[in-house]
Amino acid sequence: IDPDSGNTLYILTHKRILKFLKLFISEVPKPEFMAQTLEELQIGTYSNIAVVGTSTPIYVALGIFVQHRVSALPVVDDSGRVVDIYSKFDVINLAAEKTYNNLDVTVTRALQHRSHYFEGVLKCYKHETLETIINR
Prior knowledge:
This is 5'-AMP-activated protein kinase subunit gamma-1. The chain is of the alpha+beta class.
């Protein structure tokens, strides 16, 4: 924020920070924590994971986002297997495309509107190091 005018000068997001780190990580000394596992670093959620089913309506998913204070929900099939992920970014896409007029639509159907840039669900294991995950 500009101290004189009060105008916004820059916006820095988690995504931009992570992209910067990915691009320049090889040019800076490697911190010791990069060799630690996700579990040791306490990164991730390992219990009481909020999920939605493939037939869960969007309005229910929105309630789960708020109730559990999460930014993404694994989408699971009838056998509990993760088949996709529904994130707050997907909700923003619904608004941007003005396809939010029917919140009774299922998560699966809503995900059909997702941008083609989605790279899919990546698996990380708690025994993997942060360096392994970043280099993936």
